[in-house]
Amino acid sequence: MVTRAGRNRSPRDDARSIFLHAVRAVSPYESVLSHLKVLPSGILRAGKKRYNLNRYERIFVVGGGKAVCAMAEAVESVLGARITDGVVVTAYGHSARLSKIKVLEAGHPVPDGNGVRGAREVMRVADRAGRRDLVISLISGGASALLAAPAKGIRLGDLKRITALLLKSGADIHEINAVRKHLSRIKGGWLARRVYPADLLSLIISDVVGDDPGTIASGPTSPDPTVFEDCLGILKRYGLLERAPRAVVERFREAGACEETPKPGDPCLRNVNNVLVATNLDALKAAKVKARSLGYRTVVLTSTMSGPARRAAAFFSSIVKEVKKSGNPLGPPACIIAGGETTVRVVGRGRGGRNQEFALAAAVEIAGQSGVTLLAAGTDGIDGPTDAAGAIADASTVDRALSMGLDPMNHLERNDSYTFFDHLGDLLRTGPTGTNVMDMVVALVV
Questions:
Q1: Which fold has domain 11-22+281-445?
Q2: Residue burial 192-217, b: 16+ Cβ < 10 Å; e: rest
Q3: What is the rounded (10 degree) CA torsion for 385, 390, 396, 400?
Q4: Where are the domains of the chain?
């Protein structure tokens, strides 16, 4: 393909460039800076709200997530010496050196002991806040696991077990986080309860479909509309009632003996301002700009793609094939973009993640469709428990695999997409990107 710049590039190169440009566009550091500014008068402008910094005695910063260090760095650059104390928890390998805010590392996606200690530190700082203080909460994807504060009667082992079961069950993030909220002392609005009556400004990078602050990181600063009975229903729906830790099931069944999470209208949420600073749609819009600069007619289908990865891949591929066949909704050279977060019900013992499974299922669908290339990847650079962000497939993927003795359907049924693409050399490895706004699929038709 010849781009507008006149250079020869392959569709694979273009797909990578589009994806990486989109990831850079949702940089946590730049995203926070674009929503946070101190005016000469001492007024802090955060989103649509303003805070008179002169009336606060102290400013505290807390938070968690895989993107939280860059967010905290941005807050330090804006507020500097005004920060009294702060602590954030991020995943192993994602930390950075900060001046005023302490950084701790913990396990993700399954919580560990460092997550318990990190959450304890966050709660310690939050508990210091009083009526004349401002607390800034920084939240990004991964905080549900990183801020592990087991509720009374729940052990860390219980959290690990139920998290692992839910991640493999096919449950979506809304369901998983509903359970997490009811097993925590910090999620589901409990952080806001600890901070009250101080003012609470929460800067959030969304990693969930729909961008609901109550679901992102299990909503530590948002009201929780779900109840214990909902959690029991989720376990039943995915056949986990007999496999879940006894303490978890008993807590859900004896809901009357446990205090519910803060609900909409709770006074502790009165002083909360939740501000979304980066979303999946922001990344998709940036991808569209880049694709057009490379000479592609471009359409963004949705930022709310969800459901089983294989089913989503089949539907997305049908649109790609329609573009190839009829030029509808746009003709080649075309770029079709979608985002969101699919699920995988793990039944095999292979390796992979939802994006790699999406790419493998799509490879089967687009086999033989010359001129079609597809990339599916996580914007955080991590797809499932692997070292890849996702994978790239094209019309030749299935034939190349068969020539190497690889059976695409067998790998798909065993949830072994990582091994499949690794043999082909088609895994997309970016390393941790420092951000996290769910997943992106880019298809090019030339």
A1: glycerate kinase, domain 1 (3.40.1480)
A2: bbbbbebbbbbbbbbbbbbbbbbbbb
A3: -30
A4: 11-22+281-445, 29-149+184-226+261-278
Common-topology check for domains 11-22+281-445 and 29-149+184-226+261-278:
no
The strand order across the sheet containing 102-106 reads 102-106, 85-91, 58-64, 133-139, 199-205, 272-278
Q: 29-149+184-226+261-278 in CATH: which number?
A: 3.40.50.10180
Residue-wise pLDDT for 125-182, tens only, equals: 999 999 999 999 999 989 999 999 999 999 999 999 999 999 999 899 999 999 999 9
pLDDT for 128-141, tens place per residue?
999 999 999 999 98
Q: How far apart are CA 234 and CA 227, in angstroms?
A: 11
